[in-house]
Specification:
The protein is of the alpha/beta class. About 35% of the residues lie in helices and about 20% in strands. Strands 1, 2, 3, 4, 5, 6, 12, 13 and 14 form a nine-stranded mixed beta sheet that branches. Strands 7, 8, 9, 10 and 11 form a five-stranded antiparallel beta sheet that branches. β3 (about 80-85), α3 (about 95-110) and β4 (about 120-125) form a beta-alpha-beta unit. α1 packs antiparallel against α2 (about 35-50) and α3 crosses α11 (about 395-410). It is elongated and about 85 Å long. Bound molecules: zinc ion.
């Protein structure tokens, strides 16, 4: 049972989310791509909201909004609360923006209670999380840990506009990116609240959950080559059907993802050649996407998939090749911050639940700077990247109370 609340924090968060949802690049739906005019307007609004909450703020050289509340000891390492305000095309209003808004609500609540934190608190609204405009990913948060790759500036959107050109139009400054990098010694931790984008919390009837790790990912391209033939004349016993072999391999992938804890494995693409109704498939190219919060589990899973697929290919007399093209390590969340969040969850009368994140977040980049942790908030039907994305005011309120409680514990 969640402890009773007047829902004022949840209502305040929803009002701020409404305000930010007005900034869209397209009429009638929410689209706020990195460095677009709507992003600029949302950044300006975020900056105003931060200043009204009592933070000193600015928009940095890459378009992130940074606000700072000084602590009793201005030299103590700061606590960062953040997420992103860019969106995908035809987005929901909660993905990313919720985490920024709850940072502001937290500072408002601390000040309303006359609490001056022992250390500074920074709120960050990143701009390039969704990978929806340029071929970059988490570039604005990687800049904080000094990992901005200058070649990212040459990436272009689908209209041919480079990130560098868009940054100039936005009012940013490519020459000042190095200045965004923070000194790790000056930061004690990063907290990010985000909608779950999955169905687990809803299934467990919980408003919030604490992220254990952000999944590592293996991606690979595979090909099976058999032999084409007439679908009417070649007897079943004499076939080397590439697609029938891949059907078996998809079953292997599905079982591999299902039989381990917290793993997922997917064949998302399968292209059949020659692809004719009356021809036995000669070749199939397909992809593998395998994820786990534990890199050793993921590597073992992929190894099992490869050897079982090889065995299936041998039995069927087809050839099988597989070429990994991505091996992105998992990002475990900080153990101490996980415990802080779990204590805060328990303090509002909710059973703490740990769950891995299947999607990437700014916390991946921030974990390179300082200890990082995430709180997930239940979203309706697990839907995200869609206007149907939805959370309740009760859950927003619960998330706000958890964040405030955790922050108080860290900065007291
Ligand atoms: Zn997001």
């Amino acid at each position: 049972m969640t402890m009773p609340s007047d829902l004022s924090l949840g209502r305040r968060a929803m009002a701020l989310l409404d305000e930010l949802a007005r900034h869209s690049d397209e009429p009638g739906r929410l689209t706020r791509l990195y460095l677009s005019p709507a992003h600029r307007n949302a950044a300006d609004t975020t900056l105003r909201l931060m200043r009204e909450a009592g933070l000193e703020g600015h928009i940095d050289a890459l378009g992130s909004v940074a606000g700072r509340l000084e602590g009793v000891d201005p030299d103590a390492p700061a606590l960062v609360i953040g997420s992103h305000i860019d969106t995908v095309v035809d987005a929901g209003r909660f993905d990313g923006t919720l985490g920024v808004v709850l940072g502001i609500v937290t500072v408002e609540a601390l000040r309303a209670h006359g609490i001056t934190p022992a250390c500074p608190i920074e709120i960050l609204a990143f701009g390039d999380e969704e990978n929806a405009r340029f071929p970059t990913n988490l570039s604005t948060s990687y800049a904080l840990s000094g990992r901005y790759n200058p070649t990212w500036l040459d990436g272009r959107d689908q209209d041919g506009v480079s990130l560098r050109e868009a940054l100039i139009r936005f009012g940013g400054d490519a020459d000042a990116i190095a200045g965004i990098a923070r000194n790790p010694a000056r930061y004690r931790g990063y907290l990010e609240v985000h909608i779950e984008q999955g169905p687990l919390l809803e299934a467990k009837n919980l408003p919030v959950g604490v992220v254990s790790a952000i999944n590592g990912i293996t991606r690979a391209r595979a090909a099976v080559t058999g032999e084409a033939g007439h679908a009417g004349t070649v007897p079943m016993t004499m076939r080397r059907d590439a697609l029938a072999a891949v059907a078996e391999m998809i079953g292997i992938v599905e079982r591999a993802g299902s039989t381990r804890t917290d793993t997922v494995a997917t064949v998302g693409v399968a292209q059949v050649q020659p692809g004719a109704t009356n021809v036995i498939p000669a070749r199939v190219d397909f992809t593998l996407d395998a994820r786990s919060p534990d890199d050793s589990v993921r590597h073992a899973m992929v190894q099992d998939i490869v050897s079982e697929c090889e065995a299936a290919a041998q039995r069927r007399g087809v050839s099988f090749t597989i070429e990994p093209f991505m091996d992105s390590p998992a990002t475990p969340m900080d153990k101490d911050l996980i415990l802080r969040l779990e204590q805060a969850v328990a303090s509002i009368g909710v059973a703490p639940m740990r769950l891995p994140s299947g999607a990437g977040h700014d916390a991946v980049a921030m974990a390179a700077l300082c200890p990082a942790a995430m709180l997930f908030v239940r979203c309706k039907d697990g839907v995200s990247h869609n206007p149907a994305e939805s959370i309740t005011v009760e859950d927003a309120d619960a998330a706000a109370r958890v964040l405030i409680e955790a922050v108080k514990g860290i900065v007291a």
